[in-house]
Amino acid sequence: MILTGSIKQYLLAAVILTSCLATVQAQTADDILDKHQKAIGGADNWDKIKTVKMVGTMSQQGMDIDITQTLVMGKAMRTDISMMGMSGFQIVTDKDGWMYMPSPMGGPAKVDTMKPEMVKAMQPQMDVKGTQLLDYKSKGTKVEYMGMDTINNTPCYKVKFTDKDGKESNSFFDAATYYLLRTENKVKNNDEEMEIVVAYSNYKKMDEGVVMPTTMNVQGAEMTFKSIELNKPVDDNIFVPIIPAK
């Protein structure tokens, strides 16, 4: 088939337009994330954050649970939970993880070692900078702008993330403030894939210059932190899985 000059020009223009749109789309995703980074304090301030301690409550099925989360960025994280006179904890490090959840929290009165896949799924939470999607480039993650969406009547930019292993997730950024409002990730639990949805709200600017969410909703369990301390000394012994004395 012989193409006329006008048809050739039309097809060439279409190819160029498609290429340009793909480039603009990639630049738009990066632009959104650059503005998000600036909105929550900038890379320089976040690089100075080494430890985080958050104290608050978790509300689930009409029950309030006291919660304290302490982490050393990228190294270890401990979550202490207290309810109905009982105490439990989860500890995750860069190598291992443990859980102590006695009845009535649903577990035996002993420390259980977490399965490797569970440890791997929780390890990214040790890096607050990572949970706010500030270091995606250094991890080789690709981003793609997916258009506008709405979260709780708030216009948002939807961005798809694809990590170096091909795992995809979606994040939603407030179109006005560029704060992260929601993330959607798929994880495996006991060979079953499930979607984990986390919502972020009530952002607060800290004395250290970074802006952090003080409320997080994970699968219907809402955590509200009344106290957030940054760069305070943390005793490494709290990351040793020892049953607390009664």
Structural write-up:
The protein has helices at 5-39, 43-47, 116-122, 128-131, and strands at 51-60, 63-72, 76-83, 86-93, 97-100, 112-113, 142-151, 154-162, 168-174, 180-189, 192-205, 211-218, 221-230. Helices cover 21% and strands 45% of the residues. With 246 residues, it is of the alpha+beta class. The protein contains 4 helices and 13 strands. The protein has one domain: outer membrane lipoprotein receptor (LolB), chain A, CATH 2.50.20. It has a 13-stranded antiparallel β-sheet with strand order 6-5-4-3-2-1-13-12-11-10-9-8-7, with helices on one face.
Helix content range: 10-25%
CATH class: Mainly Beta
Strand order of the largest sheet: 6-5-4-3-2-1-13-12-11-10-9-8-7
**Strand and helix order:** HHEEEEEEHHEEEEEEE
The CATH superfamily bears the name Lipoprotein localisation LolA/LolB/LppX
CATH architecture: Clam
Which geometry do the CA atoms define?
globular
**Which structural class matches the secondary elements?**
alpha+beta
- Determine the oligomeric state from the structure: single chain
